[in-house]
Amino acid sequence: MNSKTKIGIALSGGGVRGIAHLGVLKALNENGIFPTKVSGTSAGAIAGAMYCHGYAPEEIKDIIVKTNYFKFMRPAISWTGILKMDIVESLYQKYLPENDFASLKIPLSVAATDIKRGKVVYFSEGSLIKALMASSCIPGMFDPIAIGDNYFVDGGVLNNLPVEPLDGFCDVIIGVNCNQLPEQHNIKNIKSLIERSVVMSMNYNVYSRKSKCDFFIEPPGLARFGVFDIKKANEIFEAGYQETLSFIEENEDLKEYSTTYTKNQIK
């Protein structure tokens, strides 16, 4: 491989299914494939931030399972959302104490939706934690996150596979989607109706960007896991890991980008 080849990895949102991203990263790393830059939306942004900070993929999975930050969120007394994300900020501070994009070992871009201006914004400098909170702020479930004079919700609303920050910077782009939709779904209540509608919308904007990727990894079977099904974290992780091992074997071109592992790239 040419050591100057820049590899970008775009990670989709998908709730707890985002743990599959960690299995994907583990398999890529074991095969000597490391990103020069990472971009992510929602769960992909969280996984990406922890990885770019220097945590190993399995270490990140264990942190997510241990914290299960959804249970710490308190009800919001407002018309804009059901829950507030304020208390999550202290959890992020524990694992991302520098709270600055500049402190990351690998450059990261985080996608969020500016709800007032109706556009995607890509954060890559300044406060890391606020950007992560904005990127994973599910509209209607959480109060929007204020950054400056603007308010932000989940980046997946408009861009659930943010390849744009990688385009023109990276020579090779690997897209990873973990937000699959079951072919059939029994709508039992308003929660399941909202969840399916959101996933349908997000999947549409993922596949519209698939052609921008040189490689596109989509671990099969993730649709059987709920977006908040933290108890299945190990299965989800393994699904991403095994699919990527198979993907690498089937794609000789991807193997060309393997390089020698160094501790400076990831802990």
Characterize this entry briefly:
By secondary structure, the protein is α/β, with parallel strands linked by helices.
Task: Provide the fold topology.
Elements: E1 7-11, H1 19-30, E2 37-41, H2 43-53, H3 57-67, E3 74-75, E4 83-84, H4 88-95, E5 108-114, E6 119-123, H5 128-135, E7 145-147, E8 150-154, E9 172-176, H6 190-207, E10 215-217, H7 233-250, H8 252-255
Parallel strand pairs: 1-2, 1-9, 2-5, 9-10
Antiparallel strand pairs: 3-4, 5-6, 5-8, 7-8
Helix pairs in contact: 1-3, 1-7
InterPro entries: Acyl_Trfase/lysoPLipase, NTE, PNPLA_dom
GO molecular function, one term: hydrolase activity
Keywords: Hydrolase, Lipid degradation, Lipid metabolism
Tell me what you see in this structure.
By secondary structure, this protein is an alpha/beta fold. The protein has one domain (7-256): Cytosolic phospholipase A2 catalytic domain. Helix content is 34%, strand content 16%. It contains eight helices and ten strands. The strands form two sheets. Strands 1, 2, 5, 6, 7, 8, 9 and 10 form an eight-stranded mixed β-sheet that branches. It has a two-stranded antiparallel sheet with strand order 3-4. Helix 1 packs antiparallel against helix 3 (57-67) and helix 1 (19-30) packs across helix 7 (233-250). The radius of gyration is 17 Å and the shape is globular. It starts with 6 loop residues before the first strand and ends in a 12-residue tail after the last helix. Residues 261-267 have low confidence and may be disordered.
Mean pLDDT: 88
Give the proportion of residues in helices.
25-40%
Number of domains: 1
For the secondary structure, the number of strands is: 10
Shape: globular
Q: What's the order of the H and E elements? A: EHEHHEEHEEHEEEHEHH
The structure class reads: alpha/beta
Major sheet summary line: 8 strands, mixed
The CATH homologous superfamily is called Cytosolic phospholipase A2 catalytic domain
- Kindly estimate the percentage of residues that lie in beta strands according to DSSP: 15-25%
The CATH architecture can be given as 3-Layer(aba) Sandwich
